[in-house]
Amino acid sequence: MELILVLIVVIVLCKILGVSNEMIIAGGLVLIELTIIAMLLLFAYFIVRLLFTKRKKARFSRIDKAENGKYKVAFYIVDGEEYPCIFPSEVILNDKMYRTDKEYHVLFSKSMKKVYDIYTIITCIVGFFASASAVFMTMQIVSMMELF
Hints:
Blueprint: H1 2-16, H2 21-50, E1 54-65, E2 72-78, E3 81-84, H3 94-97, E4 103-109, E5 114-116, H4 118-147
Antiparallel strand pairs: 1-2, 1-4, 2-3, 4-5
């Protein structure tokens, strides 16, 4: 909500200062592009972190808020200790996705003391390729717009 109010104030100030509508739209498109690039970098960071993990057997224990976290995450027991998943848990189908009677293979990050479960791995890979595609496509659109 605050972000929308800030954007409205910035747009009104730009109009008062005489900035053209085209420049305001171009500025908005730049902000969107920077957001997409930030998403790409975030997923790239987590994929690089995946390269330094070890595969471990784990048991799902619970879904709860992690220490110093805002969102509910899945917790897994690895080598007798409980560790949170690095990404938030799914909000739907929790009973189907996370089962206590099943043994899972997770990727364990010793330095972060967190695990990557299969859903996190899929999210990282799909998010990276979707963000990369979005960056590529928006750059193509921008390059075509310069021709006109």
